[in-house]
Every structure is written in structure tokens, then in C-alpha cells.
């Protein structure tokens, strides 16, 4: 990746427990978040003013978006750093919009990393995290792009258990789902306890067995709003060697876990062409971030 580009990988919630609700209406969560090889890409070219151009297969869904998260992130960082917001940005949009895999959050996080570098700020991750949290509950976890155990409303991050190599299929029935609408549709049901997880897994089958004891508490309301989620889950579960299939985030994208990336790619290619689908493996992290030990301007 060129120094003037940043990957914005898709976030996948391998499980998602709603553990409480704050007085301000936000929900407390417990989730194991991993990142997929699929993602958007953000590019920067020096320019006196700030602008954003969109390209890529999923760009059309954002054409009417009045307040792209990339521009919000750029303005927020410029304001916090006291520098002019400048640069011609180009977003290659490959992830479906409003689909439970955090594309907008990943783009916002990529903008923070990219402009931190292109504007010569060299802020460490810890200094960018409060800005990320202001942009959305999922943006802090997307900042490092590292697998994490996420709690609070998304801002409390702890290392994930050691993950095995595994295959991952993502499939979306091409129905956008609004995150607030899915939380609302959950209604007055009770809360789940945080999951009990081991320190790590040696293979994909053991990981899938343990994750099978968890769930996604947003899956039932999402299924009511978007019955196609059920078709996607059925197709994933019917695929040979599927170890686990579940919805990610507030949907409608579902994931399937498979023994390896090659199997996942084959399965994805066999899913209905009318769906958005992708198959591969987890990604290890994006980090072009600076460590706190590194002096600014170094
Ligand atoms: C549900 C999750 C799980 O990872 O993923 P997605 O389905 O969006 O991918 C996230 O918590 C989404 O994070 P994000 O999409 O950044 O949410 P925000 O923009 O901050 O919030 C949008 C709305 O979702 C609801 N919301 C979000 C996060 C949270 N912990 N509790 C909530 O109740 C609130 O109604 C809020 O107004
Ligand atoms: N760069 C962006 N990519 C996606 N959505 C964006 C972006 N900027 C703003 N949005 C808005 O954020 C909403 C949530 O988008 P997204 O992050 O794709 O959802 P999800 O977290 O459910 O996958 C969209 O409906 C759109 O209105």
C-alpha cells in the first residue's frame, strides 16, 4: 500500500451480546471483533482544499450521503490538531453500506490514520482514540484494525484471544439495515451476560465450537426487519465444511467460518450472484500508527 493510501478492512462481530443499556439510550455490548481481508481503500493527494471523490462497486449507495464519515473524520482531526483540513481524498468503496460490517467506521478510522500521516502529525494511537470515539461506537476498534474484545458501547478494547487461521465468508442480501432501527426493534427483551472465552484457539473448529455457545443478540430483530438474513444463514450453513454461520453487527451481512481461506473463497463464489459476497481469511491489522514512544515530527 502506498504511503498515501490506507486500507479500511471490514469488521466482523463473531458474537455480539447486548449486556445493558445506558441512560442515554446507547447499548452496552460484549463482542469479539475480527477484521476481514475485504475492505475499502482511501487515497490522499496533496491539495489546498479538502475534497472527497468516490469510486468502486459500492460507491453509488453513498452518492447522496451529505456527511461522509471520511470528511467528518478529516474535519475533526484538523480541528483537534489546529491545522487546515486539506487534501484530495478518493474512497474506493467496496463494502456494502449499512450492512453490519462497519464500512463507514472503517473509512473514518482510515481517514484518521491517513491524514495523521499526510499532515505530518504523527500522533500515537492513544491520542487518536478519543476522536475515533466521537465519530461512532465502532470507530475505535477500526482504528488499529486489530482483532479485539470490545465492550462499553464500543470504546473499551482488550486483546482478542489468540486466533487460529480460519476461512471467512461474508454475504449480504443487498438490503441495507439501519443500526438504530435494529436496536429499536430489539424491544424490551433482557440482557445477556458477557461471554466466557479461553485465552486462544489452536484451530478453527475449536473456535467455532466455543463461539457456538455465544450469539448475536441483534440477529432476531434484524431477521424480523429483513427476512432475507435467514436465507443467507441457511445458504452458509448448507455449504460444505461450514463450522459456524451468524449475522455480524446489526446486519444484514452474515459470516460463515470455514477451515481455511481457500475453502471460504470457493464457497463465496458459489453463493447467489445477486448477493454481495466475499471469501478469504482474517486480516492481521492495518497499523501504520505511531507508538507513543516515537517523538512527534521524528
Ligand atoms: C452494532 C455495531 C456492533 O459492532 O455494528 P454495526 O452494525 O453498526 O456494524 C456497532 O455497535 C454500531 O456502531 P456504529 O455504527 O459506529 O454506531 P453509532 O454510529 O455510534 O450509533 C448509531 C446508533 O446505533 C445505536 N447504538 C450504537 C452502538 C451502541 N453500542 N449502542 C447503540 O444503541 C444508537 O441508536 C446510535 O444512535
Ligand atoms: N464512508 C461511508 N461509508 C459507509 N457509510 C457511510 C459513510 N459515510 C457516512 N455513512 C453513513 O453511515 C451509515 C452506516 O454505514 P456503515 O458503516 O456502512 O454501516 P454498518 O456499520 O452497519 O456496516 C450509512 O447508512 C451512511 O448513511
Automatic annotation (TrEMBL):
Domain GHMP kinase N-terminal: residue ranges: 68-145
Pfam family, one: GHMP_kinases_C
Keywords: ATP-binding, Isoprene biosynthesis, Kinase, Nucleotide-binding, Transferase
Top-rank taxon: Bacteria
Keyword Nucleotide-binding among UniProt keywords: yes
Pathway membership, UniProt: Isoprenoid biosynthesis; isopentenyl diphosphate biosynthesis via DXP pathway; isopentenyl diphosphate from 1-deoxy-D-xylulose 5-phosphate: step 3/6
Sequence positions that bind ATP: 96-106
GO molecular function term, any single one: 4-(cytidine 5'-diphospho)-2-C-methyl-D-erythritol kinase activity
Active site positions, chain numbering: 11, 138
Protein name (Swiss-Prot/TrEMBL): 4-diphosphocytidyl-2-C-methyl-D-erythritol kinase
Amino acid at each position: 500500500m502506498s504511503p498515501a493510501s490506507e486500507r479500511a478492512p471490514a469488521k466482523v462481530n463473531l458474537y455480539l451480546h447486548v449486556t445493558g443499556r445506558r441512560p442515554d439510550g446507547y447499548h452496552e455490548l460484549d463482542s469479539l471483533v475480527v477484521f476481514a481481508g475485504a475492505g475499502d481503500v482511501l487515497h490522499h493527494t496533496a491539495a489546498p482544499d479538502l475534497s472527497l471523490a468516490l469510486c468502486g462497486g459500492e460507491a453509488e449507495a453513498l452518492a447522496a450521503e451529505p456527511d461522509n464519515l471520511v470528511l467528518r473524520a478529516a474535519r475533526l482531526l484538523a480541528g483537534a490538531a489546529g491545522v487546515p483540513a486539506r487534501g484530495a481524498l478518493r474512497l474506493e468503496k467496496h463494502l456494502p453500506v449499512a450492512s453490519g460490517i462497519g464500512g463507514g467506521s472503517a473509512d473514518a478510522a482510515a481517514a484518521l490514520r491517513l491524514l495523521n500521516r499526510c499532515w505530518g502529525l504523527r500522533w500515537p494511537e492513544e491520542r487518536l482514540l478519543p476522536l475515533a470515539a466521537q465519530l461512532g461506537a465502532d470507530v475505535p476498534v477500526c482504528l488499529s484494525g486489530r482483532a479485539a474484545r470490545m465492550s462499553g458501547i464500543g470504546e473499551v478494547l482488550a486483546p482478542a484471544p489468540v486466533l487460529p487461521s480460519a476461512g471467512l465468508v461474508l454475504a449480504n442480501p443487498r438490503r441495507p439495515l439501519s443500526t438504530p432501527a435494529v436496536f429499536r426493534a430489539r424491544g424490551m427483551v433482557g440482557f445477556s451476560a458477557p461471554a466466557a472465552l479461553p485465552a486462544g484457539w489452536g484451530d478453527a473448529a475449536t473456535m467455532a465450537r466455543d463461539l457456538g455457545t455465544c450469539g448475536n443478540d441483534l440477529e432476531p430483530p434484524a431477521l424480523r426487519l429483513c427476512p432475507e438474513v435467514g436465507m443467507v444463514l441457511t445458504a452458509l450453513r448448507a455449504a460444505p465444511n461450514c463450522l459456524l454461520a451468524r449475522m455480524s453487527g446489526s446486519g444484514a451481512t452474515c459470516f460463515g467460518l470455514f477451515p481455511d481461506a481457500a475453502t471460504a473463497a470457493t464457497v463465496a463464489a458459489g453463493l447467489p450472484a445477486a448477493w454481495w459476497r466475499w471469501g478469504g481469511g482474517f486480516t492481521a491489522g492495518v497499523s501504520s500508527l505511531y507508538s507513543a514512544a516515537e517523538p512527534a515530527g521524528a
